[in-house]
């Protein structure tokens, strides 16, 4: 291979493939770039890859050995993030895509699409305050997914998840591509926080704690089932109230601590990668992959609800019920459902209007 071809090969992943030249007047033809020895794996796209969640998420997905191709899309700064991440010596190939004209190419052939796109919360804002901006973003991205990779598993992070997941579902239904097994709202950060906070109270290693968190992904809709914690723990009523409140308001804790400079981006990226990895292991055929997620559900009378799901080759293999609840949890469930119903309807109405 002559030097020009070698340079073309090295540079090929830095710019979208629909640009036929690299650099200015170099005359180098673009060719497919493949890291030698790279293992076969899954094709993953991150939509919103240059944002506060998107950047650490992209970095952590580049480190995942199950990812063979990583597409990074954003409306700004995608080339810089792509160049930076692409220098990591892991096997996944990274390609960047900038702006609406390159969205469809970013999505074509993807197995998993992760959506952290949108604006973050600022002090005093609820996740619902983000609705007017993020709803439109998720709708546009979902339309492109329906067209370019309708069979992909979709992980939605963009808040308010309680509304953005129903928005995506309505878009997919309109396009005739909706598969409830493929669409998941990422509530893993609630579980990660619950595991951490319970471990602190009980002096345990958080890696050994598993707290089911059901309902939704905002305030009172977040319902940690502390009666079902593994390993089995006994809490005082005061501890239950403290833990429930802290888990429900963990996002606000970070927003206020960052004092206007952002929201929970790093822990969210960690949680998103933990969930994405579970999805990929499920797609690979690994057994007994069970995580909590906000999905189309018959667990309650609501059309969407977060509970434990078993992940498999088709996305969601099974949606589990809530199990036995104590009186405090039953009261919390009724409160969660009331708020959740309005958020779900808000998303459905946004697409249908």
Name the features:
alpha/beta; three-stranded antiparallel β-sheet; six-stranded parallel β-sheet; globular; 17% strand; 353 residues
SS strand fraction? 15-25%
SSE run: HEHEHEHEHEHEHEEHHHEEEH
Total strand count, please? 11
Count of helical regions: 11
End-to-end separation = 57 Å
- Mean of the pLDDT scores? 91
Radius of gyration: 21 Å
Uncertain ranges? 18-38
Strand order of the largest sheet: 3-2-1-4-5-6
Estimated structural class: alpha/beta
Please estimate the helix content: 40-55%
> What does the main sheet amount to?
6 strands, parallel
Molecular shape:
globular
Keywords: Glyoxylate bypass, NAD, Oxidoreductase, Peroxisome, Tricarboxylic acid cycle
Pfam families: Ldh_1_C, Ldh_1_N
Subcellular location: Peroxisome
Catalytic activity: (S)-malate + NAD(+) = oxaloacetate + NADH + H(+)
Give an account of the 3D structure.
By secondary structure, this protein is α/β, with parallel strands linked by helices. It has helices at 3-11, 54-62, 78-86, 103-107, 131-148, 161-175, 188-202, 237-248, 250-257, 266-284, 327-352; strands at residues 42-47, 67-74, 93-98, 112-115, 153-156, 183-185, 213-215, 222-224, 289-296, 304-312, 315-319. The strands form 3 sheets. A 6-stranded parallel β-sheet has the order 3-2-1-4-5-6, with helices on both faces. The chain has a 3-stranded antiparallel β-sheet with strand order 9-10-11. A two-stranded antiparallel sheet has the order 7-8. Helix 3 (78-86) links the parallel strand 2 (67-74) and strand 3. Helix 2 packs across helix 10. The radius of gyration is 21 Å and the shape is globular. The termini are far apart. The relative contact order is 0.12. Residues 18-38 have low confidence and may be disordered. One of its GO terms (molecular function) is L-malate dehydrogenase (NAD+) activity. Residues 187-350 form the Lactate/malate dehydrogenase C-terminal domain.
